[in-house]
Amino acid sequence: MHLTELRIQNLRNIEREQFDLAPGLNLFVGANGAGKTSVLEAAYLLSHGDSFRTHQVEHLQRRGSEPLALFAQVQTRSLTRRLGLLRQGGRWTAKLDGDASAKLSDLFAACAVVCFEPGSHALISGSAEGRRGFLDWGVFHVEQDFAARMRRYRRALRQRNALLKQEAGDDELAIWDEELSQAAEPLAAAREIYMARFERELIPLLDGYLPELDGASLRFRPGWNRAAPLREALEEVRQRDRALGHTTRGLHRADWSLAFVKAPGHEQLSRGQEKLCAIACTLAQASLYRSVRDENPIIAFDDLCSELDAAHQAAALAALIGSGAQILLTGTEIPPALLDRFPARRMFHVEQGRVRAVL
Ligand SMILES: Nc1ncnc2c1ncn2[C@@H]1O[C@H](COP(=O)(O)OP(=O)(O)O)[C@@H](O)[C@H]1O
Ligand SMILES: [Mg+2]
Fold this sequence. Notes:
alpha/beta, Rossmann fold, six-stranded mixed sheet, 45% helix, binds adenosine-5'-diphosphate, binds magnesium ion
């Protein structure tokens, strides 16, 4: 799939911009602070409802301005869709092909954007929450019922946590243990299947990017011992959970990690190696999306040239351009050697929040 048009209103320093995009490589060039990352943020928001830079919407909304609004036209193999994401009354609302009652999850399902940016090393060394978000974004695009099932799980988790704090009795807790357990099992299974497929895409990339570390592996921890239903694990930790006032087993405790023969923990990776791991994860997720959906996701690369050395930039771009995906690439300058090898289909100059096509 690719974006054919993007309209951005009141996002950071962008007041009102509208431009057409090419199916292949799109370059956004400009000085620091011009608004390049904000363009990628706009595309990412349409796919995630969240930014890779902040979870606080007030940081995204242009200071002292009208509401934040994003519109895009997305072309897939078979159809053209019109997407709108608006911030109104302190919440997001979605519009899909003119239907203002569309659910946010319908919007996100219609637009798949994966992104590598200067903060992406946090996927390796940052919080488990970021890794769960990455995993669940992938599962969401594979499993139709994922969003609704996750809502059910979160509702049950809130109930159980509230009861733990109220020191509710065993009978009442047992009802919610069962509900959580039933909500969790299909989601845990879907995550496991996804992780197994992800591993098959990821390991060859990691071994190619980081041969000096002698072999990569991926480890997934589902959040409880899956040999028995979650209900049993919850029953076991009930006393401890009461003391803590929250639930210590379940989907919300899942995590995954990478290990190498010569670097068993992420603490032994350099920042540069963490970035290569993160880019491998991004590319593996894109390629998994493609193999399941028979459609490329849109791929955003923020400041690629300042983040990776020339050889890895070229390797990443070669893999992507070979796949035919739409690429949104930013930089203060793009090395001529890279442009010779990968000619841009469209180039934009970004300056003080204005986006102008120059090619
Ligand atoms: N909420 C906001 N309102 C207005 N301007 C903002 C807001 N948040 C950030 N900015 C400004 O927007 C500009 C764009 O930032 P960014 O997209 O990161 O630029 P680039 O990636 O080109 O370096 C910066 O100059 C920043 O100071
Ligand atoms: Mg930037």
